[in-house]
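Re: the request from the purification team.
They wanted to know what the chain is likely to look like in 3D before they choose a buffer screen. I agreed to run a prediction and write the result into the notebook, where they can find it.
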Amino acid sequence: MVQRIDVTGAEGVRLAAWQFREPAAAAEADPRPGVLLLHGLMGRASHWAGTAHWLAERRRVVALDQRGHGHSARPPAGAAPHTALGREAFVADAEAAVEQLGLAPVTLIGHSMGALTAWQLAARRPDLVAALVICDMRASALGAASQREWEDWFRLWPLPFPSQDAARRWFGEDDPRVERPDPGRGAFFAEVMHEAADGWRPFFSRRQMLRARETWVHDAHWEELAQVRCPTLVVRGLDGELGRAEAQEMVRVLPAGRYAEIPDAGHYLHYDQPAAWRAALEPFLDDIPAPTP
């Protein structure tokens, strides 16, 4: 079962957190180790449903709709991006979720931008974080050219879509950025669409997504990565956005880093290969030391 819990994030932004529980644990406090799942840019907490299902067999699992995503509130349209949509706000929101929900010492599992949020929180608040999983996120600066590519890509979206299935087909097959059919990618984007008066549109504002990305895309994040002291697993899809050489350098920089690679998977690897994703994570999670009473 899934239970919604509202969290108050930075600047009072209302955040929707979703706790995944086994039915037997629903009526009482869950004393098991805590896990916080952080989706990437344009994602939503429900993207973690498959992962949360097996994690919840042995752990207390919460997935967060980050600000401007899913059922969480959007910052006001005129808010300054470096405060309302900047790195500090996303990290502060994750910190608030851990503290307000009593998840510490927590295992943070982040995909893409959510992984950056996770390792920045682990670096700044090591007292809150027991372990970290980084899923297909680069530590190097992506640069201005990358941001322009995203702006051009957003303009190609044929909104509104006539149906959710049409969105699934476009993102999985017809999008010019797709080199070959990618059902995982199609499913990922179909899930962030909702039915509006004129058709299917994303839950998020594309303008706000660009503003959020603008606040971190020009910077490298190696220094904060090196400050992460907890056990950390770096996972990449063979055809994802994080290259093997960079991923292995990230593991080298991390004081307690480990590496996993998932074949036949792209950026959305937990959608592409859920069984292989689980097989990569479980041995790492099983090795996390139990918290000291």
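For the purification team: Residues 185 and 268 are 6 Å apart (CA to CA).
Please add any questions underneath this entry.
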